[in-house]
Amino acid sequence: MACCVVISTLAGAPHELHLPSGSTVHDLKQVVASCDWGVPQECQRFVGVNAFEPLGETSTVAEGHYNLVVSLDGLYRSLHDPDTAVRLKALQGVSRLRMKGNDDLVGELIERFQDSDCSVREEAVKAVSHVAEKGDQQVLSAICSILLKERQASIRKAAVKAIASIAEKGDRQSAIALIAMLGDVDHDIREAVVGAIASIGKKGDHQSSAALIPFMSHRNRRVRQAALTTFSHVF
């Protein structure tokens, strides 16, 4: 027999869910995490309409109306968990949550850029593009530093894509940082750079054009081709 519950948040229309009779709050969290809201389980707190304290994980869900409060406390703890799998899951949750403009969350993600595990670093770079505000110079500066220091090609590529997502049109510093990557040994990264500059480059940007000139005579033919293609976006 199904149990009908209505979930409300501070923002957005109520959501009606049908759960098997006898389901617990833990079961409810799993369902909510998989629906359109995509709120990670560790961020969910359920409170009855006339209650003040969140329901426990093992509490049985009865038919009725519940308020969903999104809390980042559990997410922050998971981002510092010694288990790599837990940190990865938390970062994937951040991407689904898409909570823009939370400075504390952005700071936590930037801290993960220095994680000892390369898969965590890559996921952190991907996640930050979902939560950083457009044009956030603190984030862009942190990502640009990855382009210079990171050995893992997949992370450098993720950083290029993140810059394209966050930088505003005409952001010269980001464009010049990307241009420096045209000499990357990885062909996929060079292609990603061309696409990123096409996204943020501005016609008539002579400083960016000047930064391209050395790459036009590069010994690698593909680098020269990438430089010429990029030149067409900024000159």
UniProtKB/TrEMBL annotation:
CDD domains: Ubl_ubiquitin_like (cd17039). Coiled coil: none annotated. One of its GO terms (molecular function) is oxidoreductase activity. InterPro entries: ARM-like, ARM-type_fold. It comes from the Eukaryota. This is Ubiquitin-like domain-containing protein. It comes from Alexandrium monilatum. The lineage of its organism: Eukaryota, Sar, Alveolata, Dinophyceae, Gonyaulacales.
